[in-house]
Fold this protein.
Amino acid sequence: MSKCAEPGTFELEVLIEENEDFGPAFKKTRSRALKALLTDIKRQFGYSPAVSRIRLLKDFFCENTIDWASDVLGAKKSGLDWKRPHNPGETGDTEKCGQRLNKNGFAIRVLISLMDHIHIFLAPVLLCPDCQERRAMDEAFKAQYCHRILPESMVKRRQYESEVYEALICEGFAKKYPEVEVYFSEEQAVAVKRDFQKTVGYAQARLSGPLSERVIPQDIRLWLRRGEKPSRKDRLLLRRKQLVVWAREQVRRAGEAEPVKNWYSRLRRLCSDENGDPCW
């Protein structure tokens, strides 16, 4: 499971500068996997990437949903005999686990930026001891008990920064982004755009009511010559541009100025479950 660290809950500590000599760099880490990765990137791309460690500034707590009426760990702690009900989860007596997560090392995450530069992050791995025990005692308990804490620019199960996907989605109407076709095949690009539209559709359905209607981008329209009819491609582009404006406004924090950064990863998190996987 991957959890996103909100701004102010972590800081990035640079361990190894980009293109730093291997001699001093290797003395800063004991990880054989990281040393091998640095050597491989240096051999393939001709430079050594920067390495940063995500240092947490606050405690994190387990957000797994627990059905206390059928909780094996609760029965063990209270000294009661436990037997799984025939229909677990139907009592309505559920709430978050809430156990403080313990540090359990670091996971290596490689991220590629819009400028095609590689950056390596050491993401802290936190563990919930209660849910770990539940998994060991109850085979039907499937919730994750290990959590990787990622900065906001990361997207779960994605190797590129959020801004790379934003550039692809805004392709055709946002001039501030460089071309990004080099990152994706045509099939991959279509899949990313379709995934974005599906995610926004879920968000609009979930945020039905005044909150979802606070952004109505009526001023976004096609500029055509007199008598010219929009093509299907033009209509699809206009629709995607409207969805981008809507999505940016929905994830914008109070007082946050333009441009809204990492809006793609924030949108996906808005539409994800406690494991960081898409709800739809």
In short: Residues 84-89 have pLDDT under 50 and may be disordered. The helical segments are 22-26, 32-45, 72-78, 129-137, 162-169, 186-206, 232-251, 263-270. The first strand starts at residue 2 and ends at 4. Residues 167 and 178 are 8 Å apart (CA to CA).
